[in-house]
Amino acid sequence: MLVEHVSKQLGGVRASRLVVALSGGVDSVSLLHAVIRAAAGKSVHALHVNHGISPQADDFQRHASALCARLGVRLTCVRVAVKRNGSLEENARHARYRAFESFLADGDVLLQAHHADDQAETILMNLLRGSAAFGVGGMPRLRALGKGMLLRPLMDVRHRQLVEYASAAGLEWIEDASNDDTTHDRNYLRHELLGLLEARWPGAVTRMVAAADRDDGYAQVIDYTAKNDFRLVEADNGALSLAHFASLPGERQKNLVRYWAGTFDLPLPPASLLEELSSLLNADQDAAPLLRWQDVCLRRYKDRLFLTSVVSDVKPNDLASGARSFGAGDMLANIVKGRGLSASRVPDLCIRFRVGGERILVRHHRTLKNVMSEVGVPPWLRDVVPLIFVGEELVALPAIPGWRVPMIVADGFAAGPVEEGLEIEVSYPGQPYSH
After folding, report:
1. For 184-213, how does the pLDDT look when each residue is reduced to its tens digit (9 = 90+)?
2. Alpha-carbon separation of residue 117 from 67, 162, 297, 407 (angstroms)
3. Sheet of 329-336: strands edge to edge?
4. How far, in whole angstroms, is CA 282 from its chain's centroid?
5. Rounded mean pLDDT of the chain?
6. Pick from 317, 348, 351: which is nearest to 332 by CA?
7. What is the model's pTM?
8. What tens digit of pLDDT does each residue of 299-356 get?
9. How confident is the model at residue 82 (pLDDT cuts 50, 70, 90)?
10. In this structure, are 304 and 353 located in the same domain?
């Protein structure tokens, strides 16, 4: 039954290679087994992403390797680094999809094992959070992904059917212990709410899947409008033109923000937040207003709108050398000592963050606040720009390429390849998302 269903879903798919996203759980194990039997001569490859988060992560990878060896399928395992700041679940998802995109070549189709129960959970999550872009807000069955396409061929199949199939086929899988933790919203929906809904309204899951399919057609029309608006409103540096954005009707503004966030695979803003767009557009010029949801910020700066990551509070601390995380950013500093070149000054080099009142000698002594404003350092980044001091004298500010801010060096000092000094590499928080 499952093989026939998958065969039908793959019937119209033209793919140079079918890539099955294999986690090692019962859903993806069943999908891989069925695809091998339904592929009809197509090349089948498995892809396992190891997030390194769960204590079971390496067990999942070993199981995936053993399964593919037994089934005679080529497997690629990719280990990803997941950021620990913010939502771990969202960060893992972004890391996973980046790995998918990097792996897919032209003509590849990635197959994911999301099923009807997953779709129902997604619909309920989006509705309860108020983050559905349109209608019930389910997952699309088919969409572009990197150089290839993403297809979910099991959207009409219930989870229990996959368990029955795997058991009958003698397949082995690993249960993720975290899936039983009902403190997580999705697990609560899965283990507590869906059963109650089905008991009261038999067929509820099937009807939710059908509603998602119905709305997907309308969503394509809405996306077409958003794409056209985006082309009209897009400015440089990954931003939107404030004037052109403000000229759109209110509903098209909301639709465009959702579409824009979706192009970066970011969480969609809740409907309640989008009702505050007018306050963002009408705020004073120097207010640097923002709207925030999860770990994403929609910011207005000068005549542009930006989507950025969040900036956390930073406490200023001296740093002579070494690695340091600051406000969701990272910095690596290294003291370079030359031979016979004023070595007495090198130990005085250190990095601090802004506390207020700093001045720097650039043609004449000027306040750091004015210099930052002049060169275009956005207000929300001014407290997280590492400042380089020699003793108590401010001598340099690193460049911020994402905002086209050049490095500032005080008179009497130099930047560039030198025999001694301070090397610094900075990854800033609060950067604009850009394609």
Report:
1. 788 888 888 888 999 999 999 999 999 888
2. 25, 11, 31, 52
3. 322-326, 329-336, 421-427
4. 29
5. 85
6. 351
7. 0.63
8. 998 888 999 888 766 555 556 555 666 656 666 666 666 554 444 455 577 788 888 8
9. confident
10. no
- Find residue 149's DSSP bridge partners: 109, 144
Cβ-Cβ contacts under 8 Å for 334 (sequence gap 6 or more): 321, 422, 423, 424
Q: Tell me: do 31 and 61 sit in the same domain.
A: yes
Residue in the block written with tokens 């404030």: 242
Q: Report the sign of the C-alpha dihedral through residues 349, 350, 353, 357, in that order.
A: negative
Q: Do 132 and 172 belong to one domain? A: yes
Amino acid at position 152, single letter: R
Cα 364 from chain centroid?
43
- Cα separation of 230 and 209, whole Å? 30
Query: Would you say residue 317 lies in a domain?
Result: no
Domain interval for residue 373? 322-427
> Under the phi-then-psi rule, with left for phi > 0, alpha for psi from -120 to 50, and beta for the rest, what region is 30?
alpha
